[in-house]
């Protein structure tokens, strides 16, 4: 498989891990914490280009994580990076915003049907937290309804971990079951007059669980409850935004939110987040206090303008879906041919591949990914993967050569028992 | 004053403000919200270089805000930007961290006496919030003692605004008076066994108030209370970090924290934040969950390594202090000569200039800054200002020509008044 390769020795990665173990808690934090990286996987990376990433030992892989979502046009997209560079060459972090803040806000308002304004930040968590604050400011209420197991960020009100979190951090958070309109109605009723918002993910993409697209009836119920009670419908589009539909991921089910949170793919890897909202919440958004030292930086906003413009020009979501469908069809056929039962879930642009009868930790999935990695393909066994516009037919077909070998290895393992 | 100039017409700024009024709540958010920008000040910027910034209408100013702190070596420092560019040219946001995460963590551990580990984020608020979470995780307690009026970020537990904030967001926050050891002791006693942390700013720099350096006796009391109770001493060094002392701002008073939050100047304008901590909190830091989509990006970390290395090589804090002292001496002499009583407070690197007898909104200070702006100098009347290594004697002397005119104008106004 030409220059895609997996080394027998990952010398530099091992040395960096040893050094990190001394100076970084747990060797790395968050998604990337050393304990969470599957055995045999590289932890440290050096470069990316198009659909490929290269680790610190010089091994190049076809990348199905896209940096956990941000890369949507391909690593180091020339036009996007040129836009960022034009501002970097003038200065990025200045005493106030650049014109790109206005140009980008105008572009979002033009592109996203519900959006009548936008504001910008750095992290997805900044955006989801701001949506909650704006919803509370706009409604004068407190209760936030969140789907059980949904990921909305990494601060106390929403973190998947309770370490260091107090009960009061979640005093006004109540849960419902995603795609279950009845449970949502019950949670809204229980909240009574104190319901500030319902927050929904674009789809159900809980770690390690089969993904579910939003049920249109559930989405409509969420909208109806908000309309009836005056609560804000918050769409957390951080993970899926711009990948499924440039107008927002719930355009696919015909339901529009009052507030939406974006980040990840908005600037093809440049650090940026955005909140968009309707006229009704403009005043609340202007009264609440949001700021960050680097939030007015122009380079990431210029990158976002180019990213969204380019996605629109080439119909990025359709391209990414086609790439995902090609991968899905190939994997399905390969699994069948090797006598392995798999479940592929989620939108083609954000696939999850699971093995029927696998352990809760997805041991078979992990073994499959390790075999794919050895053949030059970087996948994930429990977190949804991401495709990009750089996943051409040729790249998908190349990846499928690797996965065919990985399925064969898993089948052999299964036969050995 | 050669090419430093102030236009009679700020055409482009006005046009951007009009457009922003439609698509951005309040015309801009946070620090930069349109309502907070003094009349006559530009809101939108185009470029920076060394100690100067240029607004969208092409007017260049000697910059005493340094992008509200991040710029410490000067705008577009060539070595820092080259380090970032080397990683950008390979790809910034990849599937995992680059080697720069390890190199930077090692450098912080080497540079900051209390630091035995580091982790990285994007916003100052990310870092202060993580410190609180780590302190709670490490102590199993909840109460956090915060100085009245201190700024520690822009999320509900610490935001200066209560808009959209619930009472529970601050359930375990109690206040003390900065530099008042007795009030700190009383707050600690009141917390009883439930004290997780005392958080302190590097100095008292509350908006619009005379600044206060930390009283060594107060700093020692904070350390003693933490040692006696097992609480974490958190130093919020986001605003002052690397400007006063490369080892942390409380090295100046000989007191070391257990956890510290950095951001702003750490990478000379590249978006980055860091938490450093002692061995005692390493396990808590590895158990708590922190993550962000762009937190492993290598370019800002490479920029930080170069920033800190360069600050160390040239003794940046000493240089910045010398520049601040030159400015302070010049302003003091000018004020005296114009018969105007001013108070200059805070460290020379982070000065605040106030006019005796001014209104609570600092109307005279604002008038002074507007006059300075008209003469090519960008200052702030209520928020502390920032100097950088690019503020050479020549730049300071140039700025003082402008402030002399500004004092004259204020004196004339006072005589008329």
Output the structural class of chain A: alpha/beta
Instruction: Supply the CATH class of the largest domain in chain A.
Output: Alpha Beta
Return the domain count of chain A: 2
Shape of chain A: globular
Question: Radius of gyration of chain A, Cα only, in angstroms?
Answer: 22 Å
What's the count of strands of chain A?
13
* Uncertain parts of chain A: none
Q: Can you offer a commentary on this structure?
A:
2 copies of one chain form a homodimer. Chain A has 417 residues and is α/β, with parallel strands linked by helices. The first copy, chain A, folds into 2 domains: 11-68 and 316-416, Aspartate Aminotransferase, domain 1; 78-313, Type I PLP-dependent aspartate aminotransferase-like (Major domain) (Aspartate Aminotransferase, domain 2). Helix content of chain A is 38%, strand content 14%. In chain A, the strands form 3 sheets. A 7-stranded mixed β-sheet of chain A has the order 4-10-9-8-7-5-6, with helices on both faces. In chain A, a hairpin with a 4-residue loop joins strand 2 (52-55) and strand 3 (60-63). In chain A, helix 3 packs parallel to helix 8 and helix 5 (181-191) packs parallel to helix 6 (216-229). The longest helix of chain A has 24 residues, at 393-416. Chain A is globular. Chains A and B meet through helix 1, strand 1, helix 2, helix 3 and strand 4 of A and helix 1, strand 1, helix 2, helix 3 and strand 4 of B.
